[in-house]
Amino acid sequence: MKILVTGAAGFIASHTCERLKALGYEVVGLDNFSPYYSLELKKLNEKALNSIGVDIINADLRTDALNEILPHDLDYIIHYAAQPGISATSSFEDYFSNNIIATKNLLDFALRLIDLKLFVNIATSSIYGLEATYPEDRAPKPASHYGVTKLAAEQLVLQKSREKQLKACSLRLYSVFGPRERPEKMYTKLIACAFNNEAFPLYEGSEKHLRSFTYVDDIVDGVISVLGKEEAVDGEVINLGTEVEHTTQEGIDAVEKVLGMKLKINKVPARAGDQLRTKANIDKAKKLLNYNPQTTLIEGVKKQVAWYKENFL
């Protein structure tokens, strides 16, 4: 079976490509290699995928002729590509074009595919808003351009399911961390600051924020578990993450424990739209997918530190 993974040079998508390849799928990657963050890291991810026989097509979902670029014998599409996170350097137009227009164009292409079994949209807990502790039927209240545009993208995908034009589902991910995490994200930033003797910029009050810090392999478990379950997941929104909560301070403590050093902290003004609490309600994922994330925070941090040492020291 052949699977297209968009955003393939990114953090979670690259891990997904590796897992799919190991399971015997034919994997086609797509990424526009946006300079939103380090191209060095994206190229490192691409090199790892190339080494196991996964090639990445350099293309932009917003502007390129997908019908001419992509294969038409796809069985699944897993759509990770997006303008991620909450960033003062990203405009509303960035979120709109990368999250909404890109998804619409990919859907238009998907509708041409005769043998497509399932379109898997990768969404985010940010759709819920400042508090993300709810089951999937809770009315969303996104509090950032990121959350708003990811909700719109999700609804574009589910619209096609409701219209019976294709089978589709949307997976809302919670606070993912692990090897290949983006440079500006919490754990990579903490580890980099430690090794470079720099102060970690901690948003005012965020040390008390609660998070379902979920190790990347546990997220990939959930993503690939929808394959072959098209009838069960069609039209569904499904939360993926750990039910275990940790404060941001506990996350900092975990990095300090693994590294055996005290980190320098620099308090900076609070960030607008930052979630106060995320706790994944995964009752539906347990029921539909037999989902059961297992990796502890300390175990995940150890693996991420090992990856950072291997690639950046």
CATH class of the domain at 2-173 and 216-242 and 275-294: Alpha Beta
Number of strands: 15
Contiguous helical run count:
11
- Kindly, what is the distance between the CA atoms of the first and last residues, rounded to a whole number of angstroms? 39 Å
The main β sheet shows up as: 7 strands, parallel
| CATH fold title of the domain at 2-173 and 216-242 and 275-294 | Rossmann fold
Low-confidence stretches: none
| Strand content bin | 15-25%
Order of helices and strands: EHEHEHEHEEHEEHEEEHHEEHEEHH
Mean pLDDT: 96
What structural class should be given to the helix and strand makeup?
alpha/beta
**CATH hierarchy: architecture of the domain at 2-173 and 216-242 and 275-294:** 3-Layer(aba) Sandwich
List the strand order in the largest sheet. 3-2-1-4-5-7-12
Rg (C-alpha, Å): 19 Å
Helix content: 25-40%
Cα shape:
globular
- Write the CATH homologous superfamily of the domain at 2-173 and 216-242 and 275-294: NAD(P)-binding Rossmann-like Domain
Provide structural commentary.
The protein has a domain at 2-173 and 216-242 and 275-294: 3-Layer(aba) Sandwich (Rossmann fold), CATH 3.40.50. It contains eleven helices and 15 strands. The chain has helices spanning 11-22, 39-50, 66-69, 92-110, 145-162, 186-195, 216-224, 230-233, 248-259, 283-289, 297-312; strands at residues 2-6, 26-31, 56-58, 76-79, 118-124, 131-132, 168-173, 176-177, 200-203, 210-211, 214-215, 237-240, 246-247, 265-268, 277-278. The chain is globular and about 55 Å long. The model has no long low-confidence stretch (mean pLDDT 96). The strands form five sheets. A seven-stranded parallel sheet has the order 3-2-1-4-5-7-12, with helices on both faces. Strands 6-15 form a two-stranded parallel ribbon. Strands 8-11 form a two-stranded parallel ribbon. The chain is of the alpha/beta class and 313 residues long.
